[in-house]
Amino acid sequence: MASFTTFSVSLSILISFFTNSFACTFTVTNNCPYTIWPGTLAGSGTPQLPITGFELESGQSITIPSVPGWSGRIWARTGCMFDHATGNGSCQTGDCGGRLECNGIGATPPASLFEITLGIGDGKDFYDVSIVYGYNLPLVAAPRGVRGGGCNATGCVEDINMGCPRELQVIGSDEGNQGGVVACKSACGAFGLDEYCCSGQFANPTTCRPSFYSGIFKRACPRAYNYAFDDGTSTFTCKSMEYAIIFCPNN
């Protein structure tokens, strides 16, 4: 227990240092009525954030600093069990290699994703909430401390799991009250066909069109990415000092 406490204190000091050194931060909040385990993944050519995976109890928030030009993803894992001594474990949804700290490993689909590329200097940030690879939790991303205005919140506030077609459902175990439908696969993840994955002869916006399944996602969450070429209604720009990332916002 002592070593885990020391790690927590050291992590707090590191995050405080980065927060005071760089402008843009991500504030991750858990409004779900149960514990979640958010994960972060940096894009190619940018450093990992100072924390890449952590436990967040219901009602808790944490602020994570970033650096100019950072790009990557933030998501939440559910139904996790970890050994605090080793960091090894597993999650029902959004798992990243069976580790508490993801350390460069992305989410196992299906998972709701916040994606962003921060601008450098006066350059704009580009951000979205994606359910292209499926959905596990409601998620809203909202700019705060906006420079110049014109920014919008985006996300997916509906509980798609409630209306997920049977063939896309991921059923959880009853451990930790995480039974029932815990996630909803994308059609690509469920069937692996080029027409759903926008691959092969469908790897362009002319041939890859919205499907019956992506339409279900789009009607529930019109601002979220729901298939690979859904840029027009789902990518947003801003110049902000902070992004609030809220899981289960309706709670």
TrEMBL record:
Where on the tree of life does the source sit, at the highest rank? Eukaryota
**The protein, known as:** Thaumatin-like protein
Q: Does the keyword Protein biosynthesis apply?
A: no
SUPFAM superfamilies noted in UniProt: Osmotin, thaumatin-like protein
Keywords, comma-separated and alphabetical: Signal
User: Is the keyword Signal assigned to this protein?
Assistant: yes
**Signal peptide limits:** 1-23
